[in-house]
Specification:
Radius of gyration: 26 Å
Helix content: 10-25%
Shape: globular
Largest sheet: 8 strands, mixed
Low-confidence stretches: none
CATH architecture of the domain at 5-116: Sandwich
Structural class: alpha/beta
Distance between the termini: 30 Å
Oligomer: single chain
Number of strands: 36
């Protein structure tokens, strides 16, 4: 039996998903012919705006269904919601959403329609590429001696030892231990990254700061001395560009460090400078003091991270002005920025940031850290407009991460299909094409640990520091990680590999997810697997912009298609997450006779065999 409405199907809504402003949308309802439909209306509204009512007209009788349709072109950008009001057999009913896409009578939620600015684009150079995320202190040590390293930093002499995690004598976690990873070390490993197929490196913060994560900026104008110099940064960007690799930086603009040139709480930068020590400081108005100087707003109450007033004109100009921080580092070689805690940044500031970055070229990218669905995100009572034009190009894709890991670990098909298709439906396609698709980050457990390790539960840092995968868990975990990486590399967006994931690194929460890259102890087979995934992405251009459709998903396998009608290409991906080899009939998956089995075994005529915990790829010419 056909549904009354299905927002994922072009038989009911065209075009699929988010639309440009003034784009004409077609909506279709289907009712069994034994229902008497006297009236059907599309009801569209935006929070704070007047509702729109669009009458659906009778179209035809088809396959024992009465078909009704209408057209609507939204005039305003932003988040819209809609439902249908229908008079059936003289009774008023409402067609709303059940689950993520199916219309039901009288018992559901509103459907979402994202409307973005006409002509909105995102940088094409990212599409079809591969990102690699580096936590700079922990990736590679050049061996070059460091100058001007602050005396209060603890330097590990053993690259492979566990990060310090115990509180100091005051009961504080200082994050003051360093391994000596640096920019020159990254430059020395560019050949390795190029072999993986990497086209863009995302660096966690590199500016002067006095904790190893560097999310407590001390000076936006200087590279942290432990990492190198401004000249080293320029050299890295130039060398990377020669290998087809771009660099994007981590911008931490919602707060600074208390131990910084701007706030200077502990006096590192002089006795009478900084907002904390000098009420006449030029930085004083950047911060909000309720009882000067000891009581001030800070990020989530962490007093080492005083909040800034992002819309303070002096601060905004410092970061976003002509020749400001954003433009300085782009001029020195960066290709864009990732914004830390984007939901902590007010819209006006992000608007100004966008203008500053895009003034250096539309090819400069802006990513935001948003953990939820970025199209309907609210923060501090404000509905955010990150992805409708003039703000972010795209975001870190936490919803995909959860959908992928939960499916691979637990085998629930709806976890995967609902999680992926909801984002694909809600996000503007230009943003979807460059989503940062990761399985781990510096803020989450390593994917290998999440998939095969003991659940962390309420276990604290001591338990986490000593807990590793058993040999059996590791072998099984690698099999599961293979499955997760297939989805990561071939779903819409670009894979973002967290350094060491491709080498078999494991680890629970911070700081154990930030262990050093295991040079000399890599899982070479996993690295070769990663290279193979990258080679297929390069070979098949459909992965740059192709549309997404699930063909069949069960607990044992997931089959989906990426299709780009403009270039006449389709890729069908078959993921076998089960413990036995499976054979699939190609004619059930592909509508064309012009195809090539890129990966998988041609078992017999019209069939392809996929081994356990493995995948197949079929390339189709349309």
């Amino acid at each position: 039996m056909l549904p009354i409405y299905d927002s994922f199907s072009s038989d009911y809504k065209k075009p699929f998903g988010a639309v440009e402003r003034n784009c004409e949308c077609e909506f279709t309802l289907r009712f069994p012919i034994d229902n008497i439909i006297e009236e059907a209306t599309l009801v569209v509204f935006r929070p704070g705006f007047k509702e729109r009512f669009i009458r659906l007209e009778f179209v035809e009788i088809k396959d024992n269904y009465a078909v009704y349709g209408c057209k609507y072109a939204p005039e305003d950008t932003g988040l819209h919601h809609y439902y249908f009001s229908v008079l059936i057999n003289r009774n008023r009913h409402y067609i709303k959403r059940n689950g993520v896409n199916i219309g039901v009578v009288d018992n559901g939620d509103l459907f979402q329609l994202t409307v973005y600015e006409k002509g909105m684009t995102t940088p094409d150079w990212l599409k079809g590429g591969i990102m690699y995320q580096i936590f700079p202190d922990r990736f590679a040590h050049s061996g070059i001696p460091k100058n001007n390293t602050p005396a209060d930093r603890q330097i590990h002499t053993d690259w492979n030892e566990t990060p310090l995690w115990r509180p100091d004598h005051r009961g504080m976690i200082t994050n003051s231990d360093y391994y000596g990873g640096d920019l020159k070390g990254i430059e020395q490993k560019l050949d390795y990254l190029a072999d993986l197929g990497v086209t863009v490196i995302y660096l966690n913060p590199i500016f002067e700061a006095h904790e190893n994560h560097r999310y407590c900026t001390a000076n936006y104008e200087k590279i942290d001395p432990q990492l190198g110099s401004e000249e080293d940064f320029v050299s890295l960007c130039k060398a990377a560009k020669e290998k087809g690799i771009s660099i994007i930086l981590d911008g931490v603009f919602s707060h600074t460090g208390a131990d910084s040139i701007y706030f200077n709480k502990i006096g590192r930068y002089g006795e009478h400078t900084g907002a904390y020590r000098d009420p006449e400081s030029p930085y004083r108005e950047w911060y909000s003091f309720s009882n000067y100087p000891d009581t001030y707003e800070s990020w989530w109450g962490i007093t080492t991270l005083p909040n800034v007033n992002e819309n303070n004109p002096a601060y905004t100009n410092y970061i976003c002005g002509d020749g400001g921080i954003l433009q300085k580092w782009i001029d020195l070689g960066a290709s864009g920025w990732r914004l830390d805690v984007a939901d902590e940044l007010p819209d006006e500031f992000i608007d100004n940031l966008n203008r500053a970055v895009k003034a250096k070229g539309d090819d400069k990218v802006i990513y935001g850290e948003v953990w939820e669905d970025a199209t309907n995100k609210e923060s501090y009572g404000v509905r955010r407009r990150y992805l409708v034009g003039g703000q972010l190009d795209s975001v870190m894709n936490y919803p995909f991460k959860e959908a992928i890991l939960n499916y691979v670990k637990n085998g629930d098909p709806r976890t995967l299909t609902d999680g992926v298709m909801t984002i694909v439906e809600h996000y503007p396609k230009p943003s979807t094409d460059i989503l940062m698709n990761f399985l781990s980050t510096h803020d989450t457990e390593r994917a290998l640990t999440r998939l095969a390790g003991d659940d962390v539960g309420w276990n604290g840092r001591e338990w986490q520091s000593e807990h590793y995968l058993s040999d059996e868990q590791f072998v099984f975990g690698i099999s599961l990680l293979h499955c997760a990486m297939v989805l990561q590399f071939f779903l819409p967006g670009i894979p973002s590999v967290y350094y060491g994931d491709e080498a078999g690194q494991e680890g629970y929460k911070d700081p154990f997810n930030r262990r050093t890259y295991p040079w000399g102890n890599e899982d070479e087979r996993l690295i070769e697997f990663t290279k193979e995934l990258g080679a297929i992405r390069r070979k098949l251009k459909v992965f740059a912009k192709g549309d997404m459709r699930f063909i069949d998903v069960t607990k044992d396998y997931a089959i989906f298609a990426r299709t780009d009608a403009e270039i006449g290409e389709q890729a069908v991906i078959i993921l076998n997450r089960s413990r036995k080899t499976r054979t699939f009939k190609i004619s059930d998956l592909v509508a064309s006779n012009d195809f090539e089995i890129i990966r998988g075994i041609e078992a017999a005529q019209d069939s392809v065999k996929v081994d356990a915990f493995d995948y197949g790829v079929i390339s189709v010419k349309l």
